């Protein structure tokens, strides 16, 4: 792409990634949005699924050079064929970013973008379980037939992509990373890896079911964006509970649970968003199964209750002192400290440590 060429990617508050051209009304956040002209497509907020009809309408008007089919916090399958058809309609390149799901695609437990995309990119350290790095796949040969001349138009991706990687954006190769990536890719061909990814998927569905089902039906009654999951992650909208992802993330961190605050549709701030994103690959590697993730959901629920209680206390105290911004996140974080002064945090931290400590680390179980 040349500078100022047009690109469309999924909007960040709707599950897209910063690198897909995110910008606010007043600031270009991503370098992609500085170099190129970007227009986001979004979810249908009634369903939580990508609004492909609106994407097609916008693309027909905007005429982007690239449409990115990829997400950062989207728990449903992407309709790659539909995006391919839209790209063909407007003569755009389809770039599929499968960074978060590449391990599941490699194990064939999720459908991949390769039959449809012109370019596929992925990081290698997420569900692929490799070193921090990346892979770029691109097509060669005939791209399409010119509708006027009927002549074949060839792909010209290899040279520009190779030159962009080196010398355009990086220097010498990291040979140790390349070696580690080779090992990771070799592992994807094993039956153990396929079984692992199947368990990742089963665990995510059990996790989502416990979190999202109604309380009277065995669930915890949380609002899941899109209502569930088809992949390895769950995105919870905490706004109906009167709390945000940043505060719950901090409480979970203090009890030994890694989660990620995340924007959800309707959010205005990425620093204090209304959502919480959680995935199953790491603890599946430790040996967790469906019943364990039901228990993880219960831990998350207790953390939400703790965060809500503490937030009310902090806000009331700040209002009494006449603070101009009684709901400021820093007041909550400062009050928490390391959590040692809150008995519920101390108790939950101890329970999590005792429980998870019974599961071996990967290098222990491999011996």
TrEMBL record:
Primary location class: mitochondrion
Pathway listed: One-carbon metabolism; tetrahydrofolate interconversion
Domain of life: Eukaryota
GO molecular function: glycine hydroxymethyltransferase activity; pyridoxal phosphate binding
UniProt key word Transferase: yes
Database matches in Pfam families: SHMT (PF00464)
A single BP term in Gene Ontology: tetrahydrofolate interconversion
N6-(pyridoxal phosphate)lysine PTM positions: 126
Family: Belongs to the SHMT family.
Function: Interconversion of serine and glycine.
Listed name of the protein: Serine hydroxymethyltransferase
Organism taxonomic ancestry: Eukaryota, Fungi, Dikarya, Ascomycota, Pezizomycotina
